[in-house]
Amino acid sequence: MKHISVLIPFGHTSVVNIEGAHQIFSFVNKILIDMGKIPALKVQLVGLSKEVSQRKGMFTISPDVMISDVKKTDLIIIPAIHGEPNKVLEENKEFVPWILYQYKSGAEIASFCIGSFFLANTGLLNGKPATTHWGHANEFRTMFPEVTVLDEKIMTEKDGIYTSGGAYSYLNLVLYLIEKHFGREISVIIAKSFMIDIDKTSQSPFIIFKGQKTHDDDAVKKAQEFIECNYQDKLTVDQIASMIAISRRNFERRFKKATANTVMEYIQRVKIEVAKINLESSRPNVNEVMSKVGYSDPKAFRVTFKKITGLSPVEYRNKYVKSL
Fold first, then answer.
1. Residue 209: inside a domain
2. Which of 6, 62, 70, 111 has CB 3.0 to 4.6 Å from 119, enough for a Cys bridge?
3. Number of structural domains, the chain?
4. Does residue 212 lie within any of the structural domains?
5. If DSSP codes are grouped into helix, strand and coil, which group holds residue 66?
6. Predicted confidence (pLDDT) per residue in 126-142, tens digit
7. Same domain, 65 and 158
C-alpha cells in the first residue's frame, strides 16, 4: 500500500489544495473497491502540531499524524503556502530534514502552485524544471536562478519531483500522478467524477502579462515603459538602446537579466497582451486587432499569438467572449 503525506504547514496555506488532494487520492480506493480490488492508498495529513490554524483562525486543521510518526512515505504533497518565502521556510523548517530524508529514501514530492517556493528552498529543485503560479514566475526566477522555470506549463516532472502551475491546476497534477501509478482507466474515472479537464497541459491561456518591473534597473524600466507606450509601432532593439543611451549588447544583457525576456520577446508579449484584451472585450475582426497592435502579416500574428497563449486568436476570443 502506498502512503501519501499531505503536509499541513504553519501559515496561510491553501485549504483547497489540502482537502482536494486528500479527497481525490482517497477516492482512488473507492474506485478500486468498486472494481473488486483492494485499496492501495493510505492518505494522511502530516503536520508539526496537533492543531494548525489557517486563514487567521477561520479554519483549524488537525493532522492525522506528526512527521515523527511517519517513518516511510511514498509521496509528499506540499500545498500552496502564501507569504514571504523566507518567513514561510523559517516557520516550517522542521519539515525540511524530514522531506530530504524521505526523498533520499525513495519518496516522490509534489508541490502545488506557490508551494514550489518552499520546495525550492530545500534545494531539491536545483537543476530541475519547475512551474508555479504565472503571477509569481519572475519572482521565482530571481530567487532560485538554479531552477529552470517553465511558467507556461501546468506541471513539470523530473527525478520524482513534480510541480504544478497556479491555483486549481493542481488538479491536473493529481490526475497525472494517479494515471502514472494506477493507469489511465482510473484517472479517467476520477476526471469524470470531479469534472476535471484531463487534457489541460498549459496555463498560457490564463497568463496576464504585466511586465516584470520588480527589478532595480532604471534604464530597463524606461525601455519597458517606452515599449508599452509605443507597442503599435515597429520597434527595434537598436532604436530602444539608442533612446536610453546604452550599447545594444549591454542593453540586451541587462534587459534579459531584469525581465527574464529578450527585448523582442517583451515587445511581442506586450503586443499580444493588448490583442488579448481587445479580443476579450468585444467581437472584432482578428485582422483589425492585428493591425491595432502593429502586425501587418496575419500569419506572423497568428503564430506569435499561439506561441504565447497556446491558442489561436479565434480560439482565444471564443474562450473568453460570451456568445451573443
1. no
2. 111
3. 2
4. no
5. strand
6. 999 999 999 999 899 99
7. yes
317 DSSP 8-state letter: H
Q: What is the mean pLDDT of the chain?
A: 94
In a shared domain, residues 232 and 270: yes
Q: Which three cell numbers stand for residue 267?
A: 515587445
HSE-CB at 291 with a 13 A cutoff on CA atoms is 5
Q: CA nearest 131: which of 111, 115, 153?
A: 153
For residue 324, pLDDT beyond 60: no
Pull the grid cell for residue 152: 507556461
Q: Does 169 score more than 90 pLDDT?
A: yes
Answer yes or no: is pLDDT of 53 > 70: yes
**CA-CA distance, 185 to 148, in Å (whole number)?**
32
φ/ψ (deg, to 5) at 299? -65, -45
For the cut 80, the answer to whether the pLDDT of residue 322 exceeds it is: no
| Extended beta strands in the chain, E state | 2-8, 12-13, 41-47, 52-54, 59-61, 65-66, 75-78, 81-82, 108-111, 129-130, 148-149, 155-158, 161-164
Based on the number of CB atoms within 10 Å of its own CB, is 57 exposed (0-12), middle (13-18) or buried (19 or more)?
exposed
CATH number assigned to the domain comprising residue 86: 3.40.50.880
Q: Which domain holds residue 75?
A: 2-204
